[in-house]
Amino acid sequence: MLRRLIAAVVGTSVAAAGAAALAASISGAGATFPAPVYAKWAELYSGATGAKLNYQPIGSGGGIKQIEAKTVDFGASDKPLKPDALAAAGLTQFPTVVGGVVPVVNLEGVQPGGIRMSGAVLADIYRGVRTYWDDPVIKAFNPGVKLPHERITVVHRSDGSGTTFLFTSYLSLEAPHWASGVGANDSVSWPAGVGGKGNDGVAAMVKQTPGAIGYVEYAYARQNHMTYALMRNREGRFVPPTAQNFAAAAAGAKWASAPGFYLLLLDEPGATSWPITGATFILMHVKQTNAQNGHDVLAFFDWAYKNGNPAAEQLDYVPLPEPVKALIRKSWLKITGPDGKPVYR
Amino acid sequence: MSSAAIPAPGVHPPGRTSPRGAAFDRLFEGLCFAAATALLASLGGVLISLAIGGWPAFAKFGFGFLTTSTWDPVQQVYGAAGPIVGTLITAAVALLIALPIAGGVAFFLVELCPSILRRPIGTAVELLAGIPSIVYGMWGLFVFAPFFSRSVELPLMDAAPAGSIWEKIVGGIPNGTGILSASIILAIMILPFIAATLRELLMSVPAQVRESAYGLGATMREVVMSVTLPYVRRGATGAVMLGLGRALGETMAVTFIIGNSHAFPKGIFDSGSTIASTIANEFTEATSPLHTASLIALGLVLFLITFTVLALARLMLRNQARL
After folding, report:
1. Which pLDDT score is estimated for B174?
2. What is the ipTM of this complex?
3. Which value, to the nearest 10 degrees, does the dihedral of the CA atoms of residues B237, B242, B248, B251 take?
4. Are B98 and B187 in contact (CB under 8 A)?
5. Do B75 and A79 touch (CB under 8 A)?
6. Which secondary structure element, helix H or strand E, spans residue A107, and what is its range?
């Protein structure tokens, strides 16, 4: 009796293990910003093909560490790795979706889109140089807007984040003082202001502090109807943060001439391009130890490029332009298995 | 045979078979020993791995890691004085606020409370201890901070004469976050721990002792100060240290409300940071090895601070025991 029971138990567990191995599951870890869209894609993909994807949003830093240690099939990072860092780790990267950073303010009587900013002015405000809203330089951009004599409270992210990386990279690009004094990173030594944890922390502090300015992810600003600023882009036009304007920035970018897709979509050309735009990235090993795993990962993202746009747009992410996707598919050919052949065609 | 001494575990008189259960006794002994040593070993393991992980930071910055306050992930310069000072200040202020209130709650429950209220209030205190810290953080940021800004910070800042020392003390950004707000939230968080422990301690004071004091004509204040408090002194120190330990290591609630600046706080409403909040903020996205090492080194510093607090508590208890 007992023996039969043991046999039954062993039998079922072996069968379960076999089933788990059959439903090929791929694993990834990293950035939190794209986690909702990866989860949605995984759900749809599993419904369409039966294949499982397990994505752990542990942060970009963790994603890079885990893919370097090969504990996951792919890593994800909001901050692209520089080509030499990629080569040193034997990695390749490609973008998946585009997002943007939006400056938000709390000023009485100012509606969303009711105030205009440039990169240089933002940098001055965040350096603590321009401290009042009725500063002549801010006023010059905003004829007709009643700006109060009110102290500007600067709010920034306290946690390391891709949003901060994009924002500080933009300020570095626009203002030499920022580049030499503070620099660009996912967390920096802020010269002024208070730090809120996450997008919600920044948003709460901006909402609760009259005269505050902060920066949040586009999806967050949109869903919470925050008072965003219009930004001056490369063509000198003041544009609102919309999905179309992010797409314009992504379309205007020179992806083809960027080795390893190392590209921040900052101040890109295009009449309607939003100047603080950026993509989020997937990291994979160029030499896959298991060709099947590499194939499964790329099959997933190929499927997502083909079928994932509506889901991404629903979650306020901006899909990549089709020509960029074609470039990325071409770059996949250099990801090879142990036999030296591309894992996915 | 009945006069024979109780045999040592695992030893049995010669010529007799092993009593039933002796083998289990040995096993039990072994398991207990393993549990105790595993605890010690994992504690040591944590300490060693923190020291190894944080070594690059100590090697690079030396003692300056503890005494400088520049924390710049871009230039790769890390000095932890800001978070260390922030940790000590917030924990100490939280304890200062929480201790008298917790004492009041405990005395009320044990000495004064009508018996019909005793259960509900006691349960409420215990429930308060069970609220997850993230809830305190959210409440602190979304409810407490706006209230604190409107009703405390702004009036105080307006009232402070320009150029006076008061203006410096209450300086900062009046949005309800900062060192004092974090301390108050921490105080609310550690209050139930201290209050619940103190209540248990006070209830352990024998009724005869208290009643004889009353019988000698002592007032309630005298009974509390001269009889019950000295009686529970040792346990009370432990309760306070437990609260302090929680305040030192509290992470999420503090991260939400402290304002997260690595510099030294200049006033009570100024932004600051604690060791735990800095680690929570930056560890997930720390990509450079030195940044990670510095955060792990911060963890080691927190470990040592907590350890020192516990050691001091032990020392105080021992000194009191001698009195």
Report:
1. 79
2. 0.73
3. -160
4. yes
5. no
6. none
